[in-house]
Amino acid sequence: MLMAGIAKRNFLVLGRVGMDLSPEPPGTPIAIAESMSVGMGGSSSNIAAGLVKLGCQAALVTCVSDDAIGWYCLDQLDRYGIDRSHVRRITGEERTSLAIYETRVADHQSVIYRNNAADFRMDLRDVEAIDYGQYGALITAGTVFAAEPSRAATFRAFELARAAGLPIIFDVDYRPYSWPSPEIAADVLSRAGAMADIIVGNDEEFGFMAGGIEKGLAKARDLAATSAGIVVYKKGPEGAVTFANGEEIHTGIYPVEALKPTGAGDSFMAGFLASLAEGCPMREAILRGSACASIVVARPGCARSMPDGAALDEFLATHPGPSEP
Length: 325
Known about the structure:
With about 325 residues, the chain is α/β, with parallel strands linked by helices. It has one domain (about 1-320): Ribokinase (UDP-N-acetylmuramoyl-L-alanine:D-glutamate ligase), CATH 3.40.1190.20. The protein is built from eleven helices and 13 strands. The chain has a nine-stranded mixed sheet with strand order 5-4-1-8-9-10-11-12-13, sandwiched between helices. Helix 7 packs across helix 8.
């Protein structure tokens, strides 16, 4: 079921779309900015954009505020070729998320406005109206679980996806500012992880779920042994450890001169899944995802900097990497 669903190359993605602002030119601190570039943001929509660029189909499930920023996001989804038939416009005090981040690594600053976020209004009606049978797999990032009614809706979507035979792909994506407490986050994210077929997270995120960063690798290994088919434990510049089919695969990264730290995880997920969908062996798929992450951190912007297939192949053909894990 897992690989057969991914091979359909048609993904249902739950989670936010937002507006990103970044000072221009690259390297400018927010505090002295005089102009900014604008782009589509949000982990789930970034993943969807990366998948579409790599030849897959992706539909987003979320809510946006019925105002100019929400309209901008809808237009961007259209421009990237992401199906937005499951995106609901809402009225009220909630607003679509805004992220302001710097295109620099040293002293990097990122400010995200998430109070009364519109995407947390996704509810049971939104996920129960979907025909899950037309998709191959469901993807979500952990932020959807941070508040109600989005949390209950996503767990319901997991149930409906499972009933329809779709594998569940979960990017832990722990953002403390979105959660009422670390204790609630640890409990909810652990519940979500136990229901997922593929889990992707970094050492801090697995450590958080396990109660200490030193316990993170054991947590990832245990999830692979008990519930998930594939678990990717990312270690930043040290590469990743992937648990799949009883194997423990250690991989490095593709070193680049980074312009910023943002967007790497979303691009990795898109590249990894698109490569699995093409039938690439596990190690190759992981490395292709790592290459996508490197491409994004070396360019301004997030969704717009994600590679298509030709750009990814060119990068792999010309880069001397990967590094040793």
